[in-house]
Amino acid sequence: MHEIGIVRQLLRTVSAFAEENGVGEIREVVVDCGELSLVIPEYVRELYPAVVKGSILERARLTIRTVPGLAECDDCDEIFNVVEHKGYCPNCGSFEKTVLSGKEFIVREIVVPEEPDTDT
């Protein structure tokens, strides 16, 4: 289960961001998880509370957005969902493709509390 290493790296990445920017609290972390990334979102959700316990992310919500695994057929230029079509082009049946999206696992957003308006 490589997801534990992924969650640990997520914690390091967000903690470094918080330290570099003087952020003391994180409300939510939004990550994009590609269908073709080999990361299992359910495992990430399960492991997250234990890995971030005692850290700046302990009370932060984790939101995982699925990025579709899209590819372009090298033979007919059709764009299709790789998972949905089991890797084969639905137009011509070719297995030859260039993956366009769906391999990533990235931090998309780090949500911090809004600062109170001090102009009044």
Q: What labels describe this entry?
A:
single chain, 120 residues, alpha+beta, hypothetical protein PF0899 fold, three-stranded mixed sheet, three-stranded antiparallel sheet, 2 helices
Short description:
The chain has 120 residues and is of the alpha+beta class.
Plain-language structure description:
- It is built from 2 helices and 6 strands, in the order H-E-H-E-E-E-E-E.
- It is of the alpha+beta class.
- The chain has a single domain, classed as hypothetical protein PF0899 fold.
- The strands form 2 sheets. The protein has a 3-stranded mixed beta sheet, with helices on one face. It has a 3-stranded antiparallel beta sheet with strand order 4-3-5, with no helix packed on it.
- Strand 1, helix 2 (41-52) and strand 2 form a beta-alpha-beta unit.
- It is elongated, with a radius of gyration of 19 Å.
- The model has no long low-confidence stretch (mean pLDDT 94).
* Count of the separate structural domains: 1
Order of helices and strands: HEHEEEEE
Query: Radius of gyration from the CA trace?
Result: 19 Å
Helix/strand structural class = alpha+beta
Amino-to-carboxy terminus distance: 52 Å
Secondary-structure topology with pairs:
Blueprint: H1 3-20, E1 28-34, H2 41-52, E2 61-67, E3 70-73, E4 79-81, E5 97-101, E6 105-111
Parallel strand pairs: 1-2
Antiparallel strand pairs: 1-6, 3-4, 3-5
Helix pairs in contact: 1-2
